[in-house]
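Hi R.,

As promised on Friday, here is the backbone we talked about, encoded as structure tokens. Could you run it through your design pipeline when you get a chance and send me back a sequence?
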């Protein structure tokens, strides 16, 4: 089974690249941001909680996020593998993902860290905000999201470094160029069958 963690700051292109990976490798794409936005659209209790936090650029509490993801994995018993997009965003979430997968006798194969500098991130998110309709793609929330990313999410890199699963991907250039870099890393993991 191939399980990919797609990692990066807001605006780094995780969603776009996940869709390309999903198509090419036939994996199930689990985007926690999309899952939460679907809850908001359905007006559920989780959606109501998420709505306020997302628009302020804050995280949903770890315990809740972990439960949600665990439930999602169960919905795809025949999956060839997963792309985890937007999860883990904290070290406790990374720990929980390891345990969740271990219980199912699988594990994270590779963590791809799409690296884009902050100025470029802000530019991309402001641009996206013109058409995305997302409550968090505005200047104030963008800065908050980047700050939360730097304090809570960056330590996740060391977590995967220690497991020798972290691969940095240069996130600038065209979508196709970034995808090519990603495929190179995934293909090398596929050929190294021990990781499966
Ligand atoms: P995204 O679509 O991945 O940019 O996520 C949008 C927002 O959803 C984030 O800014 C958080 O408020 C929330 N969110 C998504 N994934 C997580 C997560 N793993 N942990 C906590 N909050 C999350």
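Update: got your reply. Pasting your designed sequence below so it's all in one thread:
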């Amino acid at each position: 089974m191939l399980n990919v963690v797609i990692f990066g700051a807001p605006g780094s292109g995780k969603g776009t690249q996940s869709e390309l990976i999903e198509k090419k490798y036939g994996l199930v794409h689990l985007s926690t941001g999309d899952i939460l936005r679907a809850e908001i659209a359905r007006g559920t209790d989780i959606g109501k909680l998420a709505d306020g936090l997302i628009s302020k650029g804050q995280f949903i509490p770890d315990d809740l996020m972990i439960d949600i993801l665990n439930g999602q994995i169960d919905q795809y018993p025949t999956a060839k593998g997963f792309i985890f997009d937007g999860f883990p965003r904290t070290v406790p979430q990374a720990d929980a993902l390891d345990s969740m997968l271990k219980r199912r006798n699988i594990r994270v194969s590779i963590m791809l860290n799409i690296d884009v500098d902050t100025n470029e991130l802000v530019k991309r998110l402001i641009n996206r905000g013109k058409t995305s309709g997302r409550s968090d793609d505005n200047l104030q929330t963008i800065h908050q999201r980047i700050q939360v990313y730097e304090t809570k999410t960056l330590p996740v890199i060391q977590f995967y470094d220690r497991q020798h699963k972290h691969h940095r991907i240069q996130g600038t250039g065209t979508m196709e160029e970034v995808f090519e870099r990603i495929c190179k890393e995934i293909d090398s993991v596929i050929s190294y069958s021990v990781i499966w």
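One thing I noticed while checking it: The CA atoms of residues 57 and 145 lie 5 Å apart.

Thanks again,
M.
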